[in-house]
Design goal:
This protein is mostly helical. Helix content is 46%, strand content 9%. The protein is built from 16 helices and seven strands.
Length: 443
Amino acid sequence: MIIEDLAFGIDLGIGSCGWAVIRQPASIEEAGTIDGIGSWIFDVPETDKERTPTNQIRRGNRLLRRVIRRRRNRMSELRSLFRQSGLLSIDSADALKLKGLDPWELRARGLDKLLTNHEFAVALGHIAKRRGFKSAAKSKSANTAGDDQRMLKALEATRERLGRYQTVGHMFARDPDYVGRKRNRDGIYDRTASRDDLIHEVGVLFSAQRRHGNPGASIDLEEAYRAIAFRQMAMQDSEKLVGHCPFEKEEKRAAKLAPSFEKFRLLTRLINLRVTTPDGERPLSPDELARATSDLGKTAKLTAKRVRDLIGLSVEQRFTTIKPDQESGDIASKTGEAMSGTATLRKALGDSLWVEMDRQPEQLDQIAHILSFFETNDRIGAQLRALGLDNAVLDAIMAALDRGGFAKFKGAAHISAKAVRRCCQSNANSSPPNASQARRAGA
């Protein structure tokens, strides 16, 4: 039997699971009751020494198996293509192994001299086997963290050196620095090549062989080779995985960095604040709330000290739940910034466009939704154009996207942007914009 007036809450962590059962009141004016509450503690699924999550290891192994399987299938298709085109006489697994010849040398020699069919196939197969790095991230900046930063910086250095050579293969075969080592080492990516540069090398190599009279270097073979060697599945958008709002049933949950959700989260924090008074304490007034939330997004971080200045608190007054030495911290986010998404969008648009768009919160939330849940620049651009944005707004956002300005946009909130906007509109009474408000707003 389903008891509809019970609400179950679960807080699942890496080493514990907290739970609670709340009996909802008959009307929204009444308070609910807690029927049960507790927690389970269990061993953290991490390695003892490095503290690496075991599921991360499992995902890494699965990814490696997938890469190897797809490479094996790709090379099998290429060997069949080379046999059909006459470059190879057989398509067995070792057909592209040519004893005594260095594939790097063949790739360099093929730019100036005629290669035999077998040599040409070996050079092309070598390019396809390790086809370079192609980033699918929204951020292509080297100012990222960890291995990504080292990879991108190494790629920039390699591309700068490549300017002195015709192709990647030419550089690796002729540059003295690459004679002793042509592969990356653990954590060292100075032998990384860009996939775009390898695609360019294929075009140069085919053109050179046609110029030298190689009958196997046909345009049809080049097109078929490119289609197989550089084939890559499109990144899947996460938009279809976003759940629906529990209050606005037809609406998807908002992006975490949507301006309306950030304002909702900030208001929730501000409304629950209490200020000391001679008689005890008091909540912020509607006027103080309005002043604290004016001109949002000018900075990503909103400190308690800044809120104090905005609402005009005297030196003697303080917030009851914030110690004086903690007022320099963000008021709404312990580990991040209260208005990170809003500030990013405002910076991308510029002051004049922001003033115009700030009057259209629904469109700003839709923009944040697209930036958060669509993965490639092409699909993001198509979705933004479907919104009917002004060309100036669209150009500003796409320019910031190309610079990697929206890399932080990911993750969904717990309710929809529509419910959030309604909650924020009904805060005049200084009552917390909570689930009850959302139910009233959606009614």
